[in-house]
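Quick entry, no commentary yet.
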Amino acid sequence: MKYELYYWPEIEGRGEYVRLALEEAGAAYVDVARGPRGTSAMMKMMEAKGTPPFAPPFLKAGKLVIGQTANILLYLGSRHGLAPKTEAGKLWLHQLQLTITDFVVEIHDTHHPLGPSLYYEDQKPAAKKRTAEFWDERVPKFLGYFERLLADNRGAYVTGRKLTYVDLSLFQIVAGLRYAFPKRMTAFEKDVPGLVGLHDRVATRPNIKAYLASERRIAFNEQGIFRRYKELDN
């Protein structure tokens, strides 16, 4: 089966967590909106009757249409060896992914604390205040939690020896924070050596390494979740 992934064609965004899982699994897929008339096809699916997805990303797998990043990964994890086999293990991993989802919202809110309908330039003072709180309180809380899980499980990955989709998502978190906040992240990395090591291990996995070097990997930019604004990185 060839999957169809629907997400905005010019950003990594929340769709990147799904792309990383598909790439690691070596699954056949097409990034629909990056092709001719793909965005129109994506919008049409969201306007369909019945059970349409609310927003991208969503994945078409045969007759199934699955929305929400964590939900998609729950589906892919079981089918491509990226999740534990037990029900308890699957639910635990899903719980971790939902925690990452919460953190992604907070990352986005560093540059758009007053809402996405306003330009960044219209909310700079609020963004500086939010970013300071983010690095003082939220980053240590979220990344400290995952650092502790790595230490407790004493494995190469969050749940132990075997890589899961959560490890791929944490790779993206580290990579994104390095892009958006190079100074702050450099100073903070000494507090999360386990996550830094996890990032490096994921980056060298054959399928991920090939993906990162390919044109399929969209570069970080100032339209996505991770945005680099010098005035926020000091």
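second:
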Amino acid sequence: MDELKVFTGNAHPTLARAVTEYLDIPLGRAEVFQFSNENIFVRILENVRQRDVFVIQPVCSPINQNLVELLIMLDAFKRASAWRITAVVPYYGYGRTDKKDQPRVPITARLVADLLTVAGANRLLTVDLHAAQIQGFFNIPVDELTVLNLLGDYFKGKKLSDLVVVATDIGITKRARDLAAKLNAPLAIMEKRRGGNDDQTETLNVIGEVGGRVALTIDDEIDTAGSLVNTVATLVERGAKEVYACCTHPVFSGQAIERIASSPVKEVVVADTIPVNGNKKLDKIGVLPTAPLLGEAIKRIHTGQSVGALFE
């Protein structure tokens, strides 16, 4: 009675199909579309009563439409008497609004957590949250995966000499240290300051030696790429021979692609938690597949095995 079912909305159907191919099961059938008045309609086209349902939907652009789509799908499965509903959210939108850092502002990451739970999610499966405390916003189980091993294996294969891993800010230092350990490389840290709410950052200092080395920057996401371009320029000024960049989530909003194209960065390596298609494609942007990681985690959740053992 707890047969595994995987469904998707319109945010990233390519990833959902790749996950079901890994699991060797068909993708669940559902209608998910928008009426002319912008109301979203969802209809599940197969029986899910007492089934173990996973809904794959990153909260990416168009972020509000994809979030509401996910919420309505969760509600539909709840009302169709699914046994357990897992929201698979590879990219957790609004994750950067995780605290009150100014007067009279919301904690939207917590609001999204409440919305997902009320809509019907019994657990959350996600990838590389912006801040670890977001797990604590939920009163349901949360499994957070990481693509650190994927990134580490990719750059191990490139066999870059004189490598230094660079954390793009203080907040990403632990993840950068873990990647540096995997690559047997030293760590450097960018000290920067973010001004206001306009996505502008100012690089203040580089802590660590980067002169004469190949630098690899790491971040959890690349949004407008303004911070990345400033970081690359600073590293080149400090004597880095070459600069590579990697991150989990390729948001690539605004002028991100134009900035990356004109930047001296050699390669930007990302995971496919968000679609990289159309005008987001560049020769210097490499995309790593996350379907095997998500598929294995889904299989382990379904069969009651340890998800944490994937990273031991």
